[in-house]
Specification:
about 300 residues, mainly alpha
Length: about 300
């Protein structure tokens, strides 16, 4: 294979790997949230990942690739805030209230949010086809709910709302960060985003600091925590940042289609969460809506 073909194939392979990592992370996160409060765990995992990423950057990057400036700090703080701190806070809080299946399917709306922000910024135009895509995707999200038992105060409703806020934050990160990541080292920028994101989450999680009980730690928790930090945090976020320097945000977002299928299967086999027929109808509607919404962008 020629270098030009490898340059086109490698980002695609990286994006497929990211979706497998995230797909299995839903089950790992459920194990962790049985021990750690969600926001506090987000802070801990990002801080550990930041330390490891700084060590890797020190080893792998020459000094000229590790330069900082006022603009660099401002941008890495902002992207760390929306793409890591708020994203992780909303995701973990949502997962703690809702089910693995609900969370996985709702996260497939990230491409739709990405398109929505692109329309707001004037880089895309809203058409009839794209309006239909919004309707289908929102309909799919509503199908997840059993509307006859709908309660505004129910835990799963709160979890689903937090999950949608997580989608919006990640979509903003995809849309806004690409130009910056092209100008700097993704490894160096990701390390700083991890650091700033963890500091924000430590502040948000202050009320939870006394809730950790070491006696509750287990082998399964250790495996889940290691997977969550090394793969679902360090590797996945780095690959997302790297692919944003190679392809358009819409292509990065569209690969999220793989996540619900992987997550539903992992939750089925690992956690015993059996998907209902309504889940598959919701998946179809969301996939169809998102597919129509970004079809011309990919």
């Amino acid at each position: 294979m020629t270098p030009q073909k490898w340059a086109r194939v490698l980002p695609v392979l990286a994006l497929i790997l990211v979706q497998f990592i995230y797909g299995f992370n839903y089950a790992a996160a459920k194990v962790i949230l049985g021990v750690y409060p969600p926001i506090l765990w987000g802070a801990v995992r990002l801080m550990i990942a930041a330390v490891l990423m700084f060590i890797l950057a020190r080893i792998l990057l020459p000094s000229e690739k590790r330069q900082v400036s006022r603009e660099f700090f401002l941008r890495t703080f902002f992207y760390g805030l929306i793409g890591l701190a708020l994203n992780q806070a909303f995701f973990l809080k949502g997962l703690s209230y809702s089910t693995t299946t609900n969370s996985a399917i709702l996260n497939s709306m990230i491409p739709l949010f990405t398109l929505f922000f692109a329309i707001l910024m004037g880089t895309e135009k809203l058409s009839l086809l794209r309006g239909l895509s919004f309707f289908l995707a929102v309909s799919g999200a509503l199908v997840i709910r059993d509307l006859k038992d709908f309660q505004i105060t129910s835990n799963t409703f709160k979890g689903d709302l937090f999950t949608l806020l997580n989608c919006a934050c990640l979509a903003l990160f995809f849309t806004l960060s690409q130009k910056f990541l092209k100008r700097t080292s993704p490894l160096w920028a990701t390390a700083w985003m991890f650091l700033f994101g963890s500091l924000v989450l430590f502040g948000l999680s202050f009320p939870d600091w006394g809730q950790i009980v070491p006696a509750h730690f287990s082998f399964n928790f250790g495996v889940a925590a290691a997977y969550n930090i090394l793969f679902a945090t360090m590797l996945a976020y780095f690959l997302n940042s790297w692919t944003l320097t190679k392809v358009r945000p819409s292509l990065v977002a569209v690969f999220i289609y793989f996540q619900p299928v992987i997550a539903v299967c992992s939750a089925w086999f690992l956690l015993g969460e059996h998907p209902s027929p309504r889940v598959f109808i919701a998946m179809f509607l969301i996939f169809l809506g998102v597919g129509l919404g970004i079809r011309r962008r990919v």
